[in-house]
Amino acid sequence: MKKSLFTFVLLIISFSMSSQTIFGKWNSKNDETGKVDSVVEIYEKDGKAFAKIIDIKNPDRKTAVCSLCEGENKDKPILGLNILSGLEKDGDEWSGGTILDPRNGKVYKSYVELVKPNKLKVRGYIGLSLFGKTTYWERAI
């Protein structure tokens, strides 16, 4: 009985701690339809945050490539594409990196901030963060 209770408590603590971080899987919604169109996984590497697209919901888009991208991402498959690079922790947010929008191939400066345990603010901008766009991702369960 004690062993089961201890295991249950550890699971609850583990789940609650994992929901207090930007790392994990997040649903990204299409701005026009409001529907989830992809799942993005944010991971840590060498103390920085990165993210890649791990699922595309539209079966017709699963083999799509980033034809509008430039450089090394030109014509790479969108599925598996790294879209968030090099963010460093700065207080409550992760900043100093970039985000790639595969819909238009453009790369923006970026920061992300966990606004609720299951809601992530993602901001892409040019120059000052005043000139940009904010979207919110919800944690994928």
UniProtKB/TrEMBL annotation:
Residues 24-139 form the DUF2147 domain. Residues 1-19 form the signal peptide. Gene3D superfamilies: 2.40.128.520. The keyword Signal applies. Pfam families: DUF2147. Keywords: Signal. InterPro entries: DUF2147. This is DUF2147 domain-containing protein.
